[in-house]
C-alpha cells in the first residue's frame, strides 16, 4: 500500500476535521499557526463542479498556505470520471493527499447519493476510490489537466494558477472520511467494503446520517471499526464530540485508534490542539489577526462568513455577549479592530 506522508506522521495523529463553511483557508492558517495540528483537510469540493463550473468560484475552498502541510484536498460527488479528473487537478494544485467525503449528512448532498449517501451504495463507493487512485497514478506519471475533457476556462485557470505546483509530480495517497451508518449503525460491514480498495486512512465520525449532528457520537461503534481496520495497513481516525486534547488521548487509548480529528471544539479555539487556554489579550489579538487574514484571502466584498468566527472567539469573559452582538455586524477587519480597541484600552 502506498502511504505517502501518512507513513511519516507521528502517532497519535491529532488533526483538524474538515467542516463545510468553517475550515476555509483563513481558519486553517490561524489553526496552523496557533494549534499546529498534524493534519489539515480542506472543505469539500464537488467533483462535478470542478469539471464544469466556474473555476474561480469552484476551486476557492482549495486555497491553502504552506504552513498547513500536510494538507489534503477533500472531494465529494458521484461521477467516477469526474473524480478521476479531479484527482489529476488536485495533484496539479500541490496537495499532499486526497480525501473522499462519504460522510456529509446534508440533504442536498446525500439525497443525490453523494457524501453519506454512498454508505447505501458500496459498489459506487469502491468505484470512486479506484477512480481517484487511477487519477492520482496518472498524474504522477505525467498526465495533466490539459489532457482532460474540460472546459477551456478550467484548463486556462489551472495553467495560470497551478503551473509551478504541477511540475512537482508525485503520487498522492487516497483516504476516506465517513460515518458509522445511514439510518442504522453498519460501520463494521461498511468499513470492510472500504478496506477492499485499500484507502491509506479511514476517518470515522461517530454518528449516522440520520442523526446529523444531534445526540452523542458513538465511540463504541468507532472502536468496533478500529478492531477491523487495525488488522490491515490502513490507519483509522475517530471524530465526534472531542472537547480537549486530554479527551482525545483518552479516546485514543480506549478505542485503539491511530488518531483523532477535532471539529467543533476548535471554533474560536485554535489553541485546543496544544492544550493551551488563551488569555483574553491572546483571544482578542488572534480574532483580529483572523479577520485580517480572511480579508487578505477573500476581500471585503463578502465579509459575512467571518462574523461567526469572531463570535466564537468571544466567550468566558465579562462583556463577551455584548461584544459578540457588535462583532456580528462588522463588514471589514478595520471595523473589527475599532471595536476590539475599546476592550484593549
Automatic annotation (TrEMBL):
Cofactor or coenzyme needed: FMN
Enzyme class, spelled out: oxidoreductase
Active site: 104 (proton donor)
EC number of the protein: 1.3.1.-
Task of the protein: Catalyzes the synthesis of 5,6-dihydrouridine (D), a modified base found in the D-loop of most tRNAs, via the reduction of the C5-C6 double bond in target uridines.
PANTHER family in the cross-refs: DUS-LIKE FMN-BINDING DOMAIN-CONTAINING PROTEIN, TRNA-DIHYDROURIDINE SYNTHASE
Protein name per Swiss-Prot or TrEMBL: tRNA-dihydrouridine synthase
